[in-house]
Design a protein that fits this description.
The chain is mostly helical and about 70 residues long. The protein contains four helices and two strands. Helix 2 packs antiparallel against helix 3.
Length: about 70
């Protein structure tokens, strides 16, 4: 299982909170790449509910992670 920024971005608009099965269903319905679906299927299903993309991929960068200062523009 591997995540990239491009793959994880397909789950940004997922209906959070969601279970693994709900995320798989969303990925299939939204036309996400096969790698996204395979990554979700590879996750252990313990019945957990994921609150955000950070729960799926903890290294997912947020807007605050970039050094761009919007107040300057």
């Amino acid at each position: 299982m591997y995540w990239t920024l491009e793959l994880a971005s397909h789950l940004e608009d997922a209906p959070w909170p969601a279970t693994r099965d709900e995320l798989i269903d969303y990925a299939v319905r939204s036309g996400s790449p096969l790698e996204v679906i395979e990554n979700l299927q590879a996750m252990e299903d313990e019945g957990d509910t994921y609150e955000a993309i950070d729960d799926v991929w903890p290294d997912y960068p947020r807007k605050a992670d970039f050094l761009f200062n919007e107040d300057e523009y």
